[in-house]
Amino acid sequence: MALLTPALVKTGATAASKAEAIRAVVALLAKAGKVDPRYADSMLGREKVANTYLGNGIAIPHGLPKDRGLIHDTAIAVLQLPDGVEWGPGDRVHLVVGIAARNDEHLGILTNLTDVLGEEADARRLATTPNAAEIVARLTGAPAPTAPPRSATLTEFADGFEITVPGVHGLHARPATALVDLAKGFPAAIRVAHGNRIADAKSLVSLLRLGAGPGARVRVTAEGPDADIALITLRNAIADGLGEDGRGEPGPRDGPPTSTGPSADYEGRTIAGVAASPGCAVGALFPFARDRIVYAPTAKDPQRELAALDQALHTAGRQLNTLYMDVWKTSGAARAGIFRAHEEFLNDPEMLDAARVLIRKGRSAPAAWEEAYEERVGFLAGLKDAVLAGRAVDLRDAGRRVLRLLADTVEDESSLPTEPCILVAEDLTPSDTARLDPTLVLGLCTAGGGPTSHTSIIARSLDIPAVVGAGNSVLDLAPGTPVLLDGGSGLLVVQPTDTDRARAQTLCQAVDTRRAAERQDCFKPALTTDGHRIEVVANISDGAEAVHAVDAGGEGVGLLRTEFLFVNRDAAPTEDEQAEAYTAMVQAMNGLPMILRTLDVGGDKAIPYLSMPAEQNPFLGERGIRFCFAHEDLFRTQLRAMFRASARGPVRIMFPMIALLEELHRARAIAEAVRLEIGAGPVEIGMMIEVPSAVVMAPEFARAVDFFSIGTNDLTQYTLAMDRMNPVLARQADGLHPAVLRLIDQTVKAADAAGIWVGACGGIAGDPRGVTILTGLGVRELSVSIPSIAAVKAQIRDQSLAANRALATRALACTDAAAVRALVS
């Protein structure tokens, strides 16, 4: 049945107020039998918590999720107001598109509607045409006008090139972010054109609005003093994939589970969605509701509002950087990359300019900011490519982060479950998903989203079974309803029978059995089949993780990132604060060893209150041990706290970013002076191997320390001269490149000759291929993320060290990382 017909369109109408217009559009729906007339109150209720004005004189009022029971059939009605009606301060609406949706059937019309938003001439015509059929045709997918005008605000330049966007998802968030990062490095103005749209290459939202999906042909042009080099750089970057691996996913394990559709035959009522994260779970349904943000729509002091917006953007940026680091440490840089895209959203020049213009016109900072980002959310949500449209969720997530900081009050703050459950939501932002506790959220199901969304990727990294895109019917389920979630088949089963539960158990038994076996044996030593012991320890970043590391089977802590004590505060922690924190973690280890790395900041890790210098090449500047020398009082305070904690258990101290022998000697001398000063006993002292000079001088370094710990992430980037955080280069900066492996081999040989041991604490230490190669090269300790401990130990117990040595020898003879990975697979 058609969702929009001429009978549901009223042209030439008038309305004295927004409320009158909403009641008129609901009257059209009620007359057609689509809704209960009381749905008008629900739409008015929505207006109190959300701005439904899209731009270009168009609004899309719709009801609250709790009132879907008032909808008889999904339908859309249109009220045309040629003279317009005030929708909000400065907003005049001429086309009211009322939506009553029980499912997702209306999304096609919204897609066409957002096309209208992008074409001002179309919007003006629909606001005045007396022909209802013309409005229906335009919104239900009739061919768009031939050769619509291009953007009135952006123009192409004479010099440029054409290229096809690589990757199966086209120019979506990650590659677009990479393109923006590159474009911002050039003073030249740069444009990207696709079809009849033109984007500013330095604006992430502008690029996404192009809708450049898989196989899209784009034209890149530039004008300015360095336009030539900018075009060469961008052409090469796009041709190389902008950091994508050809599938649009961040790595070989991040793709959605393959599924051709629901395959399980369940007896209970099934709701079909999209398989997003494998696994099965049974539990009570828990509905997730987002908070309500309250603010005044206008303000009298524009300068004060502009300052408030700048402060909120700065704070949100810091929050996102912290969130990026947290997710990066637990799930890897690729999965955390979306939070870099969120930061880019907040710095988008077009969106910031739009918000500031509204503020100068009298809008409050939160009202202006919400209108600016929601207008762009509407554009993105209507793009025909599902992956690009899915970025609307990310933009709204970033936008709401700032909005919360600007709000007068935040009511009904999002509640998280306190008991094990299956969480159901309209949609989950990446920030929401990153906060979920996998021990309580047994599975999650969303009405919207797709398997390539960043929410799905994070859910997979947390091992939470997930089904997305299940439609709005899941939101009608009562809290506490027994449900079964089959992430592999993409099904949510309501009121599952005993037979259903048995079938689900069979489907997921293999995965569950393997994971359970790994967990059960997590405390067993990692002893190879030919009798060699490899220690598997944890990388941790805060006090609570010390306990989790022990519970997960960790045999100690191979890297405590002490930076956690210094971030998200306005001054450095005192000696007593640090000593208390280190002591608590040492005691939590119950006698297992803990390596405390001294403060490692600089490069990509900045702490504002430490007055770190602005550097042209921060990764080659005052970083790690160099920073500690420049702030020796801070360094000595931290060492005193570490030595105090050593009285309560086995502590080892490790220095980061040692490049020169004199740096190590100076650091050891300071540490020894501090130890004698407080009367502490000796502790093992080690250093990180992160730069090629440390490898070349490893025989000399080995005579001055008790152990080496190879930071494979930094060693890779300094060896290959590739910033591991650069989205364009990240895929090539592979720690299994033979150049890196040969440096690791040299390090181990130098350590063996001096009689000291070698550990590894970078990303490849937890990679199954990396485990094989590193142990084969003679690395005796692997420091990995807590969720990886049991699996790494289980892998080692299934391998022969002799076989790993043979593989490692062959890997050293390879010529690239791909050959190494193929060899070990």
TrEMBL record:
**Residues of the HPr domain:** 158-245
Lineage of the organism: Bacteria, Pseudomonadati, Pseudomonadota, Alphaproteobacteria, Rhodospirillales
Record's PROSITE patterns?
PEP_ENZYMES_2, PEP_ENZYMES_PHOS_SITE, PTS_EIIA_TYPE_2, PTS_EIIA_TYPE_2_HIS, PTS_HPR_DOM, PTS_HPR_HIS
Q: Which cofactor does it need?
A: Mg(2+)
Cite the EC number.
Answer: 2.7.3.9
Which intervals of the chain are annotated as region Disordered? 241-266
Keywords for the protein's UniProt record, in alphabetical order:
Cytoplasm, Kinase, Magnesium, Metal-binding, Phosphoprotein, Phosphotransferase system, Pyruvate, Sugar transport, Transferase, Transport
Which family is this protein grouped under? Answer: Belongs to the PEP-utilizing enzyme family.
Gene that encodes it: ptsP
Q: Name one GO biological process term.
A: phosphoenolpyruvate-dependent sugar phosphotransferase system
**Classification via Gene3D superfamilies:** HPr-like, Mannitol-specific EII, Chain A, Phosphoenolpyruvate-binding domains, Phosphohistidine domain, PtsI, HPr-binding domain
Task: Kindly list the places in or outside the cell where this protein is found, as annotated in its UniProt entry.
Answer: Cytoplasm
- What protein does this entry describe? phosphoenolpyruvate--protein phosphotransferase
Please name the PANTHER family in this protein's record.
PHOSPHOENOLPYRUVATE-PROTEIN PHOSPHOTRANSFERASE
Q: Reaction catalysed? A: L-histidyl-[protein] + phosphoenolpyruvate = N(pros)-phospho-L-histidyl-[protein] + pyruvate
Q: Which GO terms describe its molecular function?
A: kinase activity; metal ion binding; phosphoenolpyruvate-protein phosphotransferase activity
All copies of the PTS EIIA type-2 domain together span 2-142
Q: Name one GO cellular component term.
A: cytoplasm
Alphabetical list of InterPro entries matching this protein: HPr-like (IPR000032), HPr-like_sf (IPR035895), PEP-util_enz_mobile_dom (IPR008279), PEP-utilizing_PTS_enzyme (IPR050499), PEP_util_AS (IPR018274), PEP_util_C (IPR000121), PEP_util_CS (IPR023151), Phosphohistidine_dom_sf (IPR036637)
Tell me where it mainly resides: cytoplasm
